[in-house]
Amino acid sequence: MPTDELSLVFGALADPTRRAILERLARGDATVNQLAEPFAMSQQAVSKHIKVLENARLVQRTRAAQARPCVLDTVRLDAAAGWIAEHRQVWADRYDRLDEHLATLRPRKEAR
């Protein structure tokens, strides 16, 4: 089981149910019952997904009277997005260099 934060985040995001839960929480805080409503699965199964999101520190449970609503924590999402953006730029730079190299080869090929 991965222990570094980025691996935990990407592991949590790998599941479509967990991504749907995050999308719901992006619209506002929600209880486990509210999060479980759109899914054809037990509340216990949804709770397990929420636990994975909590372990990845993408979701926090707060306390409001008797309820413990879940709250989206975007800090780890921002870190994951930053990692993706950084690596996207590396690959974009490599493709740009490849394009430049291919452009230098075209005149030679056309001259034959």
Index terms:
112 residues; Arc Repressor Mutant, subunit A
Discrete helix count: 5
Low-pLDDT segments: none
Q: Tell me the fraction of residues in β-strands, as a range.
A: 5-15%
Distance between the termini: 57 Å
Query: What is the name of the CATH architecture?
Result: Orthogonal Bundle
Number of strands: 2
What's the mean pLDDT score? Answer: 91
CATH class: Mainly Alpha
- Form type: elongated
- How many domain modules? 1
Tell me about the largest β-sheet. 2 strands, antiparallel
Any idea of the CATH topology?
Arc Repressor Mutant, subunit A
Approximately how much helix is present in the residues? 55-70%
What's the helix-strand series? HHHHEEH
Q: Structural class, from secondary structure content?
A: mainly alpha
Specify Rg, calculated over alpha carbons.
22 Å
Structure description:
- This protein has a two-stranded antiparallel sheet.
- α1 (5-13) packs across α5 (75-111).
- 67% of the residues lie in helices and 5% in strands.
- It contains five helices and two strands, in the order ααααββα.
- The chain has one domain: Winged helix-like DNA-binding domain superfamily/Winged helix DNA-binding domain (Arc Repressor Mutant, subunit A, Orthogonal Bundle), CATH 1.10.10.10.
- The protein is elongated, with a radius of gyration of 22 Å.
- With 112 residues, the protein is mostly helical.
- The mean pLDDT is 91.
- A hairpin with an 8-residue loop joins β1 (59-61) and β2 (70-72).
- It holds the Pfam family HTH_5.
- GO terms for molecular function: DNA-binding transcription factor activity.
- InterPro entries: ArsR-like_HTH, HTH_ArsR_DNA-bd_dom, WH-like_DNA-bd_sf, WH_DNA-bd_sf.
- This is ArsR family transcriptional regulator.
- It comes from Asanoa ferruginea.
